[in-house]
Amino acid sequence: MFCPRHWSGEKVSILYLVPSFGVGGAEAFDLRIMSCLPKDQYNIIMVGCEHPDGPWYQEFKSMAGEIYSLERMAPHQSGREAFIRYLMISKCVDVVVNRNTSYGYKLVEQWPLVSKQVGFADVLHLHAFGKDWVHASAPYHEEIDLRYVTSDDLPGYAARQYNINSNCSTMASSLKNCRTKRRARIGDTQSARDGKFPRPHSWSDSSGASRIRRIPNVGFP
């Protein structure tokens, strides 16, 4: 099913979905994550799902191997979803990182029907007591392999409000572990696990939020 010219055990292919390439704390966090991924080990396919441009478009472009805007790929949602499916197959995606996009959560829901060999990571920022992306993310908790959060209170809030707790066996300890779901086409399973990613801190409380993770502070690129 996957495109032979992208078959390689040397790099992890990441589809990174964001709303836009604007300026803000969420975008700065995306750039920090990307700055921690060595280009000789990771290939990042960046997709802006809602707005095609933004003041930091060039910054995102410099970090990613490829960059796309869904608005320019198709005029309607169905066509944009089809383009994301095309990227999943043609780029042999290993891990999907989603930050605040409905397209990403729909992929989390539907792609396991196609293949169970892709890992899903969710990046969460702020909460607004039900009117936030934590609320949007919660229904897909069982399908998400890894969560990164950016504030100390988010794990406890998510555990209390949505029962996202440490008993879920699908949670992983780092993005590298998402990679263990990779396609069987990788012959050298040991080298397939050699990719490095900044190890997240684990947050734990009485509500059982220890499986929700936060990325450590790193320098802005």
Q: Can you lay out the helices and strands and say which pair or pack?
A:
Elements: E1 12-18, H1 25-35, E2 42-48, H2 57-63, E3 66-69, H3 70-73, H4 77-90, E4 95-98, H5 102-110, E5 119-124, H6 133-137, E6 146-149, H7 154-162, H8 175-178, E7 201-202, E8 213-214
Descriptive tags:
221 residues; alpha/beta; Rossmann fold; 29% helix; disordered N terminus
Can you walk through the features of this model?
The protein has 221 residues and is of the alpha/beta class. The protein has a single domain (10-214), classed as Glycogen Phosphorylase B (Rossmann fold, 3-Layer(aba) Sandwich). Helix content is 29%, strand content 16%. It contains eight helices and eight strands; from the N terminus they run E-H-E-H-E-H-H-E-H-E-H-E-H-H-E-E. It has helices spanning 25-35, 57-63, 70-73, 77-90, 102-110, 133-137, 154-162, 175-178, and strands spanning 12-18, 42-48, 66-69, 95-98, 119-124, 146-149, 201-202, 213-214. Strands 3-2-1-4-5-6-8-7 form an eight-stranded mixed sheet, with helices on both faces. Helix 6 links the parallel strand 5 (119-124) and strand 6. The longest helix has 14 residues, at 77-90. The protein is globular, with a radius of gyration of 16 Å.
